[in-house]
Amino acid sequence: MAATEMRSKGQGKDSNSPKPTNFYLFSMKIGFFAGFIWGLVRWLSVGLNFTKVSQAFLLDPFVSRKLLNGWGWGVAGLAAFIIMSVIAALLYVLLLGRLQGPWPGLMFGAVWWGLLYAWAGPAVGAVPPLREIGWNSIVIDFCLFIVWGTFIGFSIAFELHNEAESEPANKTEQGSPQATS
Questions:
Q1: Would residue 5 count as lying in a domain?
Q2: Using CA atoms in the order 51, 31, 87, 134, what is the torsion angle rounded to 10 degrees?
Q3: 45, 74, 120, 126: which has the fewest Cβ within 10 Å?
């Protein structure tokens, strides 16, 4: 009797079935963790002098470059990197969400690096021109953005396509209670 009442309140849906994923909320979570994890890795690379571009390079157009090397500005730079990553993850869902596999994410990271380091970044003063930062900074930051983009793209693609693949399986389970051989 109690199970019947629960089903009628749940309008015929099984309470144990997973809720469909809200892709925009999910992509914001992925963007937050991508920014946090890879922002910390980037901060470590700055601390170990692997790159000459400061941790707070996204704040460089708004604050004097000399001030950006302090610990507090490093935290602010991490926060800016997280915000940029959330925006990037939302853009990924809108533009490339239907693509599968790691390659779209890899290309997504490369495009972001190109936008920030070769085009818009030097134009607004966020990043020094490529000829001034040296090959070590170019390679380290390019690889970091490749991994960052792959993390965002592959995580979102896996969830989107995993969710899409699970729907037909649920329909066949509901239509046929016995396993087919």
A1: no
A2: 10
A3: 120
